[in-house]
Amino acid sequence: MKHMIVYAHPNPDSFNHAIKEKIINEIVKRGEEYNFISLYDEKFNPILDSPDFEALHRGEVLPDIAKSQAMVKESDHLIFIYPIWWFGQPAILKGWIDRVFSNGFAYYEDENTFIPYLTGKSATVFVTLGTEKNTLVQNGMELDSFMRSMTLGTLELVGISPVNVIPFYAVPKVRDEDRKTMLESIVI
Q1: Is the previous residue joined to 162 through a cis bond, with omega within 30 degrees of 0?
Q2: Distance from chain centroid for Cα 130
Q3: Measuring CA to CA, which residue among 94, 104, 101 is closest to residue 58?
Q4: Could you tell me which residues come within 8 angstroms of residue 122 by beta carbon, excluding any fewer than 6 positions away?
Q5: In the chain, where are the structural domains located?
Q6: Whole-model pTM?
Q7: Which CATH fold topology does 1-183 show?
Q8: Fewer Cβ within 10 Å of end Cβ, the chain: N or C?
Q9: Strand (E) or helix (H) holding 176
């Protein structure tokens, strides 16, 4: 199996970084392959702008997009690692999706048809939250309510299924032992 890891966190000392390291170690230990992109380290341009649309109309793909699209195409399983900020993903990841999952690559759409092109792939989404699960539930904010744009509205829409979400709650508030237990629970 070949994995693609899309990592979106700016802090190399973060728990997200520890998740990424654990996942890479697990993949290597299993003798599987992976591609990796760190959106912040690569200073990925998240802005879908005129050059993107102009290239699409010419039937071209810009080089930074072509690199990511090749990795997606080669993969069997996509792994996303990011924090939940304001009940969504970081803007850099949203911009990556906007630019990479384009019409003609991730799907085809015209006035009559929508065809997903990324069928046969699966995904796991690892997210960290600063809030405790009970606090979210007490305020009517189930994880699924703000993850649907990623799971259903993005990944499943373009044919990626199944999509599993692995949340880690209250990461900045828990003890180091709890974070260690969280890391040990990760299975690919």
Answers
A1: yes
A2: 18
A3: 104
A4: 76, 77, 78, 160, 161, 162, 163, 164
A5: 1-183
A6: 0.95
A7: Rossmann fold (3.40.50)
A8: N
A9: helix 176-184
